[in-house]
Automatic annotation (TrEMBL):
Gene3D superfamilies per the UniProt record, alphabetical: Enhancer of rudimentary (3.30.2260.10)
Organism this protein belongs to: Glycine soja
Protein name: Enhancer of rudimentary-like isoform B
Similarity comment: family membership: Belongs to the E(R) family.
InterPro entries named among the record's database cross-references: EHR_sf (IPR035912), ERH (IPR000781)
PANTHER family membership: ENHANCER OF RUDIMENTARY ERH (PTHR12373), ENHANCER OF RUDIMENTARY HOMOLOG (PTHR12373:SF0)
C-alpha cells in the first residue's frame, strides 16, 4: 500500500466554504497529515501548554466532530481514484 496517491477531502463545519482537500503521495503520509491537523488544532486551543498529548480516542473524536472527511486512494491497476471506506466520516 506504500506510495498510493491519496487525497483527503474535508469539511470542518456545516458551512460549505470550509471544504478543502489535502494531497499526499501515500496513505501513510495522509494519515500523518490528519494527525498533524489535529495536533495544530490542539496547539491552537491550548497555546500555553508546551507538551500536549492525546490518544487515538481523542483523534477519533476530532474526526467525528468534522462535518465530513473522506479519502480517495489511487489504485494503480485501475488507473483511477477509489474511495477508501476506512476513513469516510
Amino acid at each position: 500500500m506504500a506510495n498510493r496517491h491519496t487525497i483527503i477531502l474535508m469539511q470542518t463545519s456545516q458551512n460549505r466554504a470550509t471544504r478543502t482537500f489535502m494531497d499526499y503521495e501515500s496513505i501513510t503520509q495522509a494519515m500523518d497529515g490528519i494527525c498533524a491537523l489535529y495536533e495544530r488544532k490542539l496547539k491552537e486551543l491550548n497555546p500555553t501548554i508546551r507538551n500536549l498529548s492525546y490518544d487515538i480516542t481523542d483523534l477519533y473524536n476530532f474526526i467525528d466532530g468534522l462535518a465530513d472527511m473522506s479519502a480517495l486512494v489511487y489504485v494503480p491497476l485501475s488507473h483511477s481514484q477509489k474511495s477508501c471506506a476506512c476513513i469516510v466520516h
